[in-house]
Amino acid sequence: MSLIKKTCKLTGRAFEVSELEQELRKKFNAPLPDVHPYERMRELLSWRNIFTLYNHVCDLCKKPTLCYFNPETPFPKYCRGCWYGDGWELPQRDIDFNRPFFEQLKDLVDITPQVAISVSEPMENSDFNNAATSLKNCYMCFNVGYCEDTYYLVTGMHNKNVVDAYGVGNSEIVYDCTGCDRLYNVFYSEQTINCRDSLFLYDCQDCADCFMSSGLRHKRYVWRNEQLSEKEYSKRLYALYALNLGSYEAVQSLREEFKQLKQSYKLPALWGSKNENSSGNFLAACNNVEDSYMMDSVENAVNCYDLLDTIKDCLDVCAFGYGLELCYQSSSAGLNCYNIRHTFLGIEKSTNLEYCYQCRTVSDAFGCVGARKKQYCILNKMYSKEEYAQLHEKLIAHMKETGEYGQFFPQSLNPFGYNETVAQLNMPLTQKEATQHGFAWHEKKIPSFPPEKIYTPSDNIKEIRWEDVEGKVIICEESKRPFNIIKQEFEFYKKHSIPLPRLHPEVRLQHRLPRAELYNLHETTCETCGTRLSTTVDSSVLCKECYFKRLR
To answer: For residues 344 and 415, is the Cβ–Cβ distance under 8 A?
Structure first.
C-alpha cells in the first residue's frame, strides 16, 4: 500500500493519505478524504466549547446555573441535577424517508434538553468551571480534574495551588506555566518536568533552584545557564527579589528576556517521550500515531487531538477521549466507548453509535440526542433488534442518496459560534473569515462599568490591598474586556509577590497556548546533522540524537 496524494477541495493545499490512514478508513468503511487534515481538525474543534460561559436559568427548575451554550440556542438547557433526573421525557421522532436526515436530526436537537454545564461530581465550592471533575475550591478551570485551590487552569490533572496555567499536571504552587508536570513552587516556566523552587525555566527536567535557564537536566543553582555555588545563587536571588518580582514593570522586563531565551533555543522536532513511529507534537507513550497533538498512551491514530489513556484505532477525533477504540470523526468524543462514528458531545460508556449527540450508556443507536441507557434507537425511538437492523440499513442507503452519509454534522447543527470554541484558540479567524468558512459567530457583549468600579492596578503588588480590588474590575489592555480578581487569587498573588494581571484571562490563554507548534506538520531536516524529520515547528529543529547531545 502506497501513499495517496490528494488536493484539499476547500483550500487547494496538497496532502497525502498515509498507509495507516488508509487502513483505518477500511476499518470504518470510510471513503478517502477530500479535505486537508488541518481543515478537518478545524471543523472538529469548532464543535468544542469549554471556556465560553453564560449565566442562565435552568429551563426546568428555574434555578440559576452557568451554561456553555449561548442564549440564542433553541433547545432547553437544564442544570445538571435536572438533566440527570426523571422530571422530563426524552423526545423522539419517526424516520421520514422523504426528507434529508440532517433536517430531521436538527428538528430533534432543537427540542431535546441539553445539560447546561459539563462537570462530574464531586465538585466542592467549585461552581465556575466546565469540562471538569473532582474539584475543590477551584475557579474558572476547564478540561481539568482532581484539583484543589486552583484558578484559571486549562487542561491539567492532580494539582493544588496552580494559577493561570495551561497543560500542567501533578503540581503544587505554580503560576504562569505551560506544558509542565510535577512542579513545586515554580513560576513563569514552559515544557519543564520535575522541578522545584525555580523561575523562568524552558525545557528543564529534574532541577531545583534555577533561574532563567533552558535545556537543563539534573541541575541546581543555575542562573541564566551559568552554574553557581549555593551561596552565589542565594545572593543573586535575594537581589532579584529586592528588585522586586512584585513589580509589573520588572516582571515584564523578565518576560521579554525569557522570550528571547526561547527564541534562541533550538527545539526538538517533537516534544514527547516513549513514542514509536509517531508524528505531531506533545506526545507521550504513543505508537503508530500520525499528525496528532496532546496525546498520551495512544495506538494507531491519525489526525487526533487531546486523547489519553488506552486509545486505539482513532481517526479524525477531537478531545477528551479516555478509553476509546474504533472512533471516527468525533468531537468531544467521551469516555470508554467502542465503535463510535460521527458523534458529538460527551458520549460515555457507549458502543456502536453513529450520528449521536450527547448520549450516555447507549448502544446500537443512530441519530440519537440526549439518550441515556438505551439500545436499538433511531432518532431516540426504540425498536426491536430486528427492526433496528432493517431500518439502520435503509437509513444509511437513504443518506447515501442524499449525499449525507459519511459527512460530519453540518454547521447548522453546531450550537457554538466559532469564536466560542477551542477552534478560535488554536486556529484563529476573523469574523469575516469564519463566516466565509460557513461558521457561526456569537460575540459577547462587553459590559460597561462606571469609573468608580474600574480599578487601575499599581505597579507593585505590595502597594495593593484587597480593599482596593474588591468589587471592582480591571480593563484588559488588549481586548478592553473587564475582568475581576477573586479574593483567593489575590491572596496567592500577594503571598508569592506576583503583580496583578493586566490582561483578560482569555487573552492570557491565547498568549500561553503553543499554537505555533501545533497542526502544521511538514517535512524538514535536522539543523545539525541533516536527518530528514517531520515537525510542526516553523523554525529550525534538531533530531532526537542532536537534541540530547545539546542538553546540559
So the answer is: no
User: What cell does 430 get?
Assistant: 476573523
Q: How confident is the model at residue 465 (pLDDT cuts 50, 70, 90)?
A: very high
Could you tell me the pLDDT band of residue 241, with boundaries at 50, 70 and 90? confident
Give φ, ψ of 210 to 5 degrees: -130, 155
- Cα–Cα distances (Å) from 335 to 40, 158, 421, 422, in that order, read 22, 19, 21, 20
Strands 151-169, 178-187: pairing kind: parallel
The residue whose grid cell reads 489592555 is: 477
The phi, psi pair for 346, rounded to 5°, reads 70, 40
Residue 482 is inside which H or E element, if any?
Answer: strand 482-483
Q: What is the SS3 assignment for 169?
A: strand
Q: Residue 367: CA atoms inside 13 Å, Cβ hemisphere, count?
A: 27
Q: How far apart are CA 235 and CA 240, in angstroms?
A: 9
Amino acid at 407: Q
pLDDT for 514 beyond 90: no
- Bond prior to 64 in cis (omega within 30° of 0): no
pLDDT in tens, 61-73: 999 999 999 999 9
As given in the structure block, the three cell numbers for residue 520 are 502544521
pLDDT tens digits, one per residue of 104-125: 999 999 999 999 999 988 999 9
Cis peptide leading into 100, omega within 30 of 0?
no
- Sign of the torsion angle spanned by Cα atoms 487, 492, 493, 497: positive
Using only C-alpha atoms, the chain has a radius of gyration, in whole angstroms, of 25
Largest alpha-carbon pair distance within the chain? 82
The 8-class DSSP code of residue 516 comes to G
DSSP SS3 for 16: strand
Distance of CA 228 to CAs 199, 203, 224, 432, 517, Å? 16, 19, 10, 54, 33
- pTM of this prediction? 0.94
Residue 411, amino acid? Q
With cell 481543515, the residue in question is 39
Q: Which residues contact 291 (CB under 8 A, 6 or more apart)?
A: 37, 279, 280, 302, 303, 521
- In this prediction, residue 346 carries a pLDDT of 67
Q: Which stretches of 215-372 are DSSP H helices?
A: 230-243, 248-263
